[in-house]
């Protein structure tokens, strides 16, 4: 068996991913089936001697056992013991704080909870910076809740929110380890970039060189995703390979002894991995490069698949929950695709170009080969990551090959310029040198934005796979491919490509035309109060925003998924925590119009920048298809939305329906968080109550007589059809 590490590592990666995202019963069934197959394979001499199948089957079993062991000995005991409890926590901050545009986020290693020693990680969210440093001890009291999947992947099993005036005691340690000084260097380099460059360019440079992507604007991230360039701001194999290649050339000139040279190369790889935050893609790249370096040292050619498997085993044996990090899955999938397919694809394409006479020139040959390799890597990486892109992000880019050909060739020069710009900033007698490097970085950034904006405007630049037409197109295309395979002629395949493209175009146009006549309601479950978002083809409006601060992310996630740049309206009413929610959304998204309820204003329409305050009845024209009447009654705000022939009423929880005019008591749709005083005076076709807990279900049962049907749930989506 030539690729033992590759087989075990990649099998373990696949199985743990299944365990993380599938049900426990299914995982146990998979393990039982694999164990049975292992025992059967051991009884067949030829299979047992070859070894591949027995090793694969026993790896499946051991992987499930590893995952279940960690789940029931480390994760669940901590979560079940402290979830939804207010506790005093003492924890050590071993990572830098970062701002996600919503919160300051602190990733902590817990020392004790209520005086009990607990081995877990915790995510602390605050609106205000508490000005702690890495390796400071923090002591605070807060309500603890379970963490998200992404946090679980980093060993953070709990989360705490201290949004306003966080009372945190900071204990400075007497000794700070080496990692603190590396993080301090990282902070100084990032500061230098922000001093030399504009905020947007500095955020991009910091992401490219240091892996600090939290400060990137949402619009810029969306632009990169549309063009298939998100990988350039995730420090991984491309970045680490560039740094390693440059260091290798330098060390080979500096040291004649190959062992000393290899040692310095390995130390540089480890140092850069630590400097960039030691994320999973970086660890994968670092392990592969170290194996490659050691292989060259002992005159052995390293096997790429074995290297990938070794990297997977190193990460997963220490943290089986690492598969919850989407970046890790994308990194391994893309690398595997490049290793398996890229060379073959490049060779076939270059064989075609070799027929032309211009390939006899060495410079032309090298240039064509370089760009063909970039295109091949881009195609292979996209194809291998396609399932993840479809399931997680709901889409993929069709211009990724073009964008990579236009952007990636300059990456080496730009990364070097970013590094030198940050380093020379601190050399006071060479200010012009730093300015020169900064100029190159700015030039590349504006070129990147220009390329992305141009490509994103192309038809079908980005295919949204969470839309019905995509699955229709995929099904029909697979059927056409099957027919073409049976016919097995060139014309059959050509016709298949043409018809597939026509089906995609037709499906997209039909879907977009349908969306022109539909408004979509989103009612996320935000806990203690109501949040409602309405979307049309022209933009979206947040009609009310409130609830528990622990579920603030539910509304933000909805807005982030449907965010459009034109005609976005935010309306804040008098519901609980409405101002907290509205402030968060205003800070995170660029709304063109914001209306805030304030009963202290003397005249409705008073403005502060783009914020308009109202205290009396007010009408807002959202788009040609919809308008909303804000009906103020005794400190409560009813919202009456007219969308075509459909009428929608949003009831405030502290309102009284008796105060509402009879004109508004019989809408088509009513949305409420729960029972509202005198709701029996109302009637409607559809009643929507978000939530699936006891209170939501009880409210639905009490209010059911006023409606023909009642809809409840945690993430409610409802389409309102408009007549033309």
Which SSEs are present, and which pair or pack?
Elements: H1 4-21, H2 24-42, H3 45-50, H4 52-82, E1 85-93, E2 98-99, E3 104-113, E4 116-117, E5 121-126, E6 137-146, H5 149-152, E7 156-161, E8 169-171, H6 178-196, H7 199-210, H8 218-226, H9 237-254, H10 258-275, H11 280-297, H12 304-318, H13 326-353, H14 362-393, E9 395-397, H15 400-407, H16 411-424, H17 431-456, E10 462-464, H18 468-487, H19 490-516, E11 518-524, E12 532-536, E13 539-544, H20 552-562, E14 569-572, H21 578-588, E15 593-597, E16 606-608, E17 611-614, E18 618-623, E19 626-633, E20 636-643, E21 646-650, E22 669-671, E23 684-690, H22 694-703, E24 707-713, E25 715-721
Parallel strand pairs: 5-7, 13-14, 14-15, 15-17, 21-22, 22-23, 23-24
Antiparallel strand pairs: 1-3, 1-6, 2-3, 3-4, 3-5, 6-7, 6-8, 9-10, 11-12, 11-25, 12-13, 16-17, 18-19, 19-20, 20-21
Helix pairs in contact: 1-4, 1-12, 2-4, 6-7, 6-16, 8-17, 9-10, 9-11, 10-11, 11-12, 12-13, 13-14, 14-15, 16-17, 18-19
